Amino acid sequence: MNLFQEVDFTGHSGDQLHWKIECDALSDSDWKCLARMISELEHRPFQSAIGIPRGGVKLGVYLDEYGTGNPKHPYLICDDVLTTGGSMNEYRDKYFSKHETFGWVVWNRGGEAAYHWVNSLFSMPYNSKEYGTVHMVGIGNGKNKDKI
What we know:
This protein is of the alpha/beta class. It has helices at residues 28-41, 57-64, 86-95, and strands spanning 4-5, 9-10, 16-17, 20-21, 48-51, 75-82, 101-108, 118-123, 126-128, 132-134. Strand 2 and strand 3 (16-17) form a beta hairpin.
């Protein structure tokens, strides 16, 4: 199975997409390493990591090893690939609306809707109706995330 696949499919948002990142191609050791990479970048404590079914479950399991278990800390919501940000927002709103959260994904295909609360290991350029091709967003340490 290839990680990157040229295939037409309908994304969670209903958009027609022409290529995908097939994270089922990743091994458990890949997921463990990706979780370690995130843990070295994320300095905020979190009580538990929750992976969005189906793509984020393995990442959540490995990220949870870095959780504090402290109910005073926020939850970390994670997923494998973010395309529009809709599924991250929906999951947070449905299950964690009364809790403090922040998010991580491995790949961001251009999810403008979740940039204010979701970080990504790898962000790809994307086409924005408002700005054209966007190459990089949110440079810095997160202190000015409202200034994208």
